[in-house]
């Protein structure tokens, strides 16, 4: 989604801003823009529809300055265009604003401002902010910005420059991430650490309702009401190099191949062999509290929701606590019954997905205890939750989630084992699961070695217009995630069904042109799954099975190594990530930035 980057210091600002924007490209965008304070203090703006390289080509030769802000826009109000690209300025071009989020009462404010004589240059919601700030009679830029923000409803992460207040950038956050990067006599601001880790790893993440003023050698944070807040910089654990492609052609490929290492990281330091359990330091849930949990409700969106579905299964199997997962986007709108004996778990790679954050806030308002299972340290959901665990997948740049899915599921296995061991799970089963977890990195490596074969299969199936994915119980969320992966990256329509539901409808779709991808683990449901393959074959359907042994009824089988039954779902999705990748490659898709999608969905 939209991205913000800003700099104030001594260096030439335009190249720094362009580099920052490039590092935010993965979030998805359709236009970009930059504004700097020029040599005579005037604001100089350049905007372009399309890619950052288009913006770069429009930057004049003489475009020097040491203060500036920039933006990549993902259209919400008004089509992608030069005019709608940020920054937005007031009529006198004294105030420039870049904004992530949505101003909900923008239409109302536009009507009010138009009646007062304001002429709008764009169709965006953001432009109202520039006019409101410019029209404020407050004495300082900080007060002008907070006065303007008092009139708006909605979500924002903003950065503001004002010609009459040189040498400072004022930023504010409500629902959209804003991170300050603290350098030596220079300061950065961005909506994502990716844009600033190449320059500093000392960061301050603003909370909702917080603002900050950045000067070259100083920063301060305060509330929108003006009270000082404490901001202690923390060190980002991810190095700048983790954002590079590392010799792969796409981030997706790189991230799929990082999974063995990533899983090793999420396990590291957490296993307690003596008591056949794991330690998850940040849960803030003691054994007595863990024993009193009567239900677990997991909330997430997209891939994180699917990881949560597998997580719910693991919790039921290992801890015998009733658990289920629900899309956070649905949950928050159905006035859910919030039960004090239920433990709520919010899952999110970015930790910034608006629907998940809003669900967490709603739950907390109603007194629930919420844990976060999150990848990005210090993100909004991690901060809002009462405790939780990080999944330590490292930065995920490709819009399509792969390694974070796998690590999130492993994190759920750890949570399930922990809960199980303070309840009913035996030492023997605890040890069995730990052994299984330890095998995962090597087994992932083994699966990744089958890439050439998967590539051939992907070519063979890439002509399909639609594909069915089936799985049963443990295999069903694997099928759902694999189907999402394929449709996101290849644009082939894909639909996931429980294999048990075939006869109740989807069997009508089966013919030679509709391939089925079937998840067929060697567990107590193997025969039932084989029966589903028979049914498909009898109707001349093509079958690609992911299984622990060759499947006679399948046209092709990808054989994956066997782990413990409960942990098999972690491995069975991995070849299908590669399948989606190679299908997309065969079809010439934009793999890291699929059309219409953004990496983190920070608006509704
Ligand atoms: O950052 P989150 O995990 O909260 O994101 C949730 C979804 O938007 C995300 O998983 C989406 O489905 C991805 N494109 C999946 O590949």
Automatic annotation (TrEMBL):
GO terms for cellular component: cytosol. One of its GO terms (biological process) is fructose 6-phosphate metabolic process. Catalyzes the first step in hexosamine metabolism, converting fructose-6P into glucosamine-6P using glutamine as a nitrogen source. The keyword Repeat applies. Pfam families: GATase_6, SIS. It is an enzyme of class 2 (transferase). The keyword Cytoplasm applies. Residues 285-425, 457-594 form the SIS domain. SUPFAM superfamilies: N-terminal nucleophile aminohydrolases (Ntn hydrolases) (SSF56235), SIS domain (SSF53697). It catalyses: D-fructose 6-phosphate + L-glutamine = D-glucosamine 6-phosphate + L-glutamate. Residues 2-217 form the Glutamine amidotransferase type-2 domain. It comes from Actinacidiphila bryophytorum. This is Glutamine--fructose-6-phosphate aminotransferase [isomerizing]. Homodimer. The active site is at 2 (nucleophile), 599 (for fru-6p isomerization activity). It is found in: Cytoplasm. Its EC number is 2.6.1.16. GO terms for molecular function: carbohydrate derivative binding; glutamine-fructose-6-phosphate transaminase (isomerizing) activity. Its main location: cytoplasm. Keywords: Aminotransferase, Cytoplasm, Glutamine amidotransferase, Repeat, Transferase.
């Amino acid at each position: 989604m939209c991205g913000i980057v800003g700099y104030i210091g001594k260096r030439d600002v335009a190249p720094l801003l362009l580099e920052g924007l490039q590092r935010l490209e993965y979030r998805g965008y359709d236009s970009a823009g930059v504004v700097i304070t020029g040599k005579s203090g005037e604001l100089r703006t350049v905007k372009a529809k399309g890619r950052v390289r288009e913006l770069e080509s429009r930057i004049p030769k003489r475009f020097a300055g040491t203060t500036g802000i920039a933006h990549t826009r993902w259209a919400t109000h008004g089509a992608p265009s030069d005019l709608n690209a940020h920054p937005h300025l007031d009529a006198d071009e004294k105030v420039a604003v870049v904004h992530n989020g949505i101003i909900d009462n923008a239409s109302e404010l536009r009507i009010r401002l138009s009646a007062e004589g304001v002429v709008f240059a764009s169709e965006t919601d953001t432009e109202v902010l520039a006019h409101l700030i410019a029209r404020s009679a407050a004495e300082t830029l900080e007060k002008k910005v907070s006065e303007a923000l008092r009139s708006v409803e909605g979500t924002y992460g903003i950065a503001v420059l004002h010609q009459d207040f040189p040498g400072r950038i004022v930023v504010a956050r409500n629902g959209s991430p804003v991170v300050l990067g603290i350098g030596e006599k220079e300061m950065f601001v961005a909506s994502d650490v990716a844009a600033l880790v190449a320059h500093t790893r000392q960061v301050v993440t603003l909370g909702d309702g917080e603002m900050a003023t950045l000067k070259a050698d100083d920063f301060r944070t305060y509330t929108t009401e003006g009270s000082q807040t404490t901001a202690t910089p923390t060190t980002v654990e991810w190095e700048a190099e983790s954002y590079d492609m590392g010799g792969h052609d796409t981030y997706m490929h790189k991230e799929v191949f990082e999974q063995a290492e990533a899983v090793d990281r999420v396990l590291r330091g957490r296993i307690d062999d003596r008591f056949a359990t794991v330690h998850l330091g940040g849960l803030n849930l003691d054994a007595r509290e863990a024993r009193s949990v009567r239900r677990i409700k997991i909330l997430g969106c997209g891939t994180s929701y699917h990881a949560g579905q597998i997580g719910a299964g693991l919790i039921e199997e290992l801890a015998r606590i009733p658990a289920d997962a629900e899309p956070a986007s649905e949950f928050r709108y159905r006035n859910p019954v919030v039960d004090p004996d239920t433990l709520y778990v919010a899952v999110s790679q970015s930790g910034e997905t608006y629907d998940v954050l809003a669900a967490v806030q709603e739950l907390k308002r109603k007194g629930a205890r919420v844990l976060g299972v999150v990848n990005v340290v210090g993100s909004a959901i991690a901060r809002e939750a009462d405790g939780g665990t990080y999944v330590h997948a490292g930065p995920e740049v490709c819009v399509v989630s792969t390694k974070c899915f796998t690590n999130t599921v492993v994190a759920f296995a750890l949570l399930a084992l922990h809960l199980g061991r303070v309840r009913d799970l035996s030492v023997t089963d605890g040890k069995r699961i730990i052994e299984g977890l330890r095998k995962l990195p090597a087994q992932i490596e083994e699966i990744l070695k089958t890439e050439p074969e998967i590539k051939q299969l992907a070519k063979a199936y890439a002509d399909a217009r639609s594909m069915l994915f089936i799985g049963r119980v443990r295999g069903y969320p694997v099928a759902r995630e694999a189907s999402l992966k394929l449709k996101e990256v290849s644009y082939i329509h894909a639909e996931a069904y429980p294999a048990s539901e075939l006869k109740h409808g989807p069997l009508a779709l089966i013919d030679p042109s509709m391939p089925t991808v079937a998840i067929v683990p060697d567990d107590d449901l193997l025969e039932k799954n084989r029966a589903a393959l028979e049914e498909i074959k009898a109707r001349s359907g093509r079958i690609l099975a992911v299984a622990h042994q060759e499947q006679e009824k399948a046209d092709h089988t990808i054989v994956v190594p066997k782990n413990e039954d409960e942990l098999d779902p972690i491995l069975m999705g991995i070849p299908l990530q590669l399948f989606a990748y190679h299908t997309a490659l065969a079809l010439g898709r934009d793999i890291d930035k699929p059309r219409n999608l953004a990496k983190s969905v920070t608006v509704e």
